[in-house]
Amino acid sequence: MKYGIAVFPSKKLQDMANSYRKRYDTKYSLVPPHLTLKDPFEMEENQIKEFSKEVRKVAKKASPFTLEVYKFSSFYPVTNTIYMKVRENESLLALHNELNSGNLKKETEHPFVPHITIGQEMNYDELSDVFGRLKLETINYEETVDRFSLLYQLENGTWTVYETFLLGNDEK
Fold first, then answer.
1. What is the pLDDT of residue 38?
2. Collapsing DSSP states into helix, strand and coil, what is residue 92?
3. Of these residues, 21, 34, 38, 96, which one is catalytic?
4. Total domain count for the chain?
5. Element holding 36 (H helix, E strand)
């Protein structure tokens, strides 16, 4: 089964992202707007409880952090993806690193770039046009993140929360 770990931002930020996603993101209906902390990975279902225990340890040690979205960017030419760029900070990077090391380490395809995808699998002309307009806009949005979620993918491709972890204060 496929799993991943992500932060779901506030409704306000999700609404902002969805205003673009419903037009430009082919995966709009499969998962809400999110910041990926651990790329999708395969794991047997019988391993999830032990994995979840390790993730809980990381969450307890981590601190809430500021999620600051400050501009639009693109992964072109690697992929035709447009995203809202999230400013890196020490707490966010430490959480990502902890969730991707030790017993939780899995191979990753790309380096960590904190972002919220708003468009993907676009043809070049559309990407060029949309990104050209968005580059001229600025975003100044900030919120505090105090939790993240372990997700699993259903057979139809949608992602569902398996468990949510509070940062620094997980009571489970």
1. 96
2. helix
3. 34
4. 1
5. strand 35-42
